[in-house]
Amino acid sequence: MRKLTSIAISSLLLFAAACGDDDGGGSGDLSGPEQEFVDAAMAEFDPAEAEPLTEDDARCVVTSMVDSLGLERLEELGITPDSFGSDEGAPFPENLDEDEANDVVDGFEDCLDLGALFAESMASDDSLDEETRDCLADAFDKDMVRRLFVTMLTKGEDALEEDPELLGDILGVFAKCPGALGG
């Protein structure tokens, strides 16, 4: 289960490490203070660390998150331009309500293929053989990946293991892909 949590968190953190743009995703009509978040995040953008995300992907993701949540809500969450531009990369918000989380995920989906990114994160896990990575990529469909991200955004990363319905679905994936449990 920790392996799945790490994969989900890694995927979400890729978004956070990534960052926002006027060329794609989001409205592109950010206010000056909202644009400060995007500029701060992009100042720390490192393509090698954000791979497979491009700079345009990153800009789109951050722009869409800032656009979705708005300046006031970001401030309520304790997220500032300085935290967006920190060495650790942009923080991902937690404790959003379900509508906010779905809006953020919608924005991410406008920028990138979440399922493909999730699968690529799994493919980078050298402890999994190719057959297991392929199985997991097939088993974690778009709806499942969305549920994982919305759960993390609303309840935090520990919630992946504490939600009985989601946990049951994840265990069902492991039943289909037994190599994911290690051995």
Q: In summary, what is this structure?
A:
By secondary structure, the protein is mostly helical.
Written overview of the protein:
With 183 residues, the chain is mainly α. The chain has one domain. Helices cover 68% and strands 0% of the residues. The protein contains 11 helices and no strands. It has helices at 2-18, 32-43, 47-50, 55-76, 81-84, 98-111, 114-123, 130-139, 142-155, 159-162, 164-176. Helix 1 (2-18) packs across helix 7 (114-123) and helix 2 (32-43) packs across helix 4. The radius of gyration is 16 Å and the shape is globular. Mean pLDDT is 76; it is low at 1-27.
How are the SSEs ordered, and which strands pair?
Layout: H1 2-18, H2 32-43, H3 47-50, H4 55-76, H5 81-84, H6 98-111, H7 114-123, H8 130-139, H9 142-155, H10 159-162, H11 164-176
Helix pairs in contact: 1-4, 1-7, 2-4, 4-6, 6-9, 7-8
SSE arrangement, N to C: HHHHHHHHHHH
- Cα(first) to Cα(last) distance is 13 Å
Task: Specify the biggest β-sheet.
Answer: none
Q: Can you tell me the number of structural domains?
A: 1
Please tally the β strands and state the result.
Answer: 0
Structural class by sheet pairing and helices: mainly alpha
Low-confidence parts: 1-27
Indicate the proportion of strand residues: under 5%
Which shape, going by the Cα principal axes?
Answer: globular
Taking all Cα atoms into account, the compactness measure Rg is 16 Å
Assign a percent range to the helix content. Answer: 55-70%
Mean pLDDT across residues? 76
Characteristic key phrases:
183 residues, 11 helices, 0% strand
